[in-house]
Amino acid sequence: MSDTITDAEFDAAFAKAQELSEYFREIGPEYDKKNTFALPTIEKFKASGLGSLAVPKEYGGQGGNILHTSKVISELSRGDSAIALAYNMHFIMVGMCLGLFSEAQNKQWMSRVADGALVFGPFSEQRAGFSGLADMTAVPQPEGGWRLYGKKVWGTLAEAADIITTNATITDAEGNLPDTFEERVEQESFFVADFDVDENGQGDGIRIEKTWDALGMHATGTHTIHFEGFYIPEDGFVCSWRGGAFGVLEWASLMFASIYLGMQYRVLEEARAVLSKKTLGATFGAIAAAETKVAGVGHIIDGIGDIASRVELSRRVVYRTCQELIDGDDDQWPLELRFPYIGLAKTFVADNVLYMTRKAMSLVGGSSFRRGAIFERLYRDSAASMFQPLNADQSCTYIGEQLLAPEELAD
């Protein structure tokens, strides 16, 4: 982008993020308890204009980069991680689509995003998640375009979205999938279209089935999307999915990392607030004192120092990785390792947030285990960090396989 956001413009956008974050914090407990998407946030999110942050100015957006977006997402997550995770889908898809759309498609769709439209992208299927080739079919139509059949199981932000992006495998006219693996890969494609459903989640050839019932991230509202002949016009074809997606997946990995960085900010904030004031009264045992303030207890001091250190390390890892991409430092990495190396920021942050939420509960004590306590909720929400791609096990396997490949050893 030649015309990027200025420091003053970003400061104004970040101030809006702080205001919206406070609103998320205020209503988050209610929607965690209800286990439903926080519908009142839609109007406020759109009014903030933050949805256009990463859209280039030439399309009417603000011209922010991946680091600007990461900082805004981290701030939103500080308020409420589950609500922020829902809107994170929009930020991810805007970043990915900018790198995959044609110029005409960017003008068409990104100008709408700049005007307030929200984008979501259901890709995973029950059988194999994100990495599995799409069983969902795109059947060519005599009049042109395709009709999509199948379902996706992680439809985050579906209840608020105006635009849908997804992947499906192009079949023959009778709906038969390609016979060979190579053809399946070649025919798996990325599509974009308008998304219009009624208050019951019913649309023309598409519907939302409200299936979200998970351990945490309750207010995210991630549902199953059924495609029942959903029409994609010819200009809705974007590109080959596997050939295109892995070149822009840093927008998924680093935006997920930003969610859990924001959660770490909240963990530290809440732990400090409780432990700086907590008094045990007279104690006898491992600690013997007439009046025990936990802020003076050695393992509490060390624990808060440990959490704060991990927050700072996570912040540096996420923001520095974003900056290296902006500076083009990733050009020096082996091409086949670019995505998993970028993904190390997410796996590092995920490991930290899982550790930190458990640590904070241990330091605060039994009250943190009560349903509805902020630490109980953060503990549940942090568990989601294990699953977004690539997770730690996938990353290590991918990197190890590449480094031990015979052709790499020969080089």
TrEMBL record:
One protein family per Pfam: Acyl-CoA_dh_N
Cofactor(s) it depends on: FAD
InterPro entries: Acyl-CoA_Oxase/DH_mid-dom_sf (IPR046373), AcylCo_DH-like_C (IPR036250), AcylCo_DH/oxidase_C (IPR009075), AcylCoA_DH/ox_N (IPR013786), AcylCoA_DH/ox_N_sf (IPR037069), AcylCoA_DH/oxidase_NM_dom_sf (IPR009100)
Domain Acyl-CoA dehydrogenase/oxidase C-terminal stretches: 302-383
Chain ranges of the Acyl-CoA dehydrogenase/oxidase N-terminal domain: 28-116
Alphabetical UniProt keywords: FAD, Flavoprotein, Oxidoreductase
One Gene Ontology MF term: flavin adenine dinucleotide binding
PANTHER family attached to this UniProt entry: ACYL-COA DEHYDROGENASE, ACYL-COA DEHYDROGENASE YDBM-RELATED
Family statement drawn from the similarity comment of this UniProt entry: Belongs to the acyl-CoA dehydrogenase family.
Name listed for the protein in its UniProt record: Acyl-CoA/acyl-ACP dehydrogenase
Species for this entry: Gordonia polyisoprenivorans
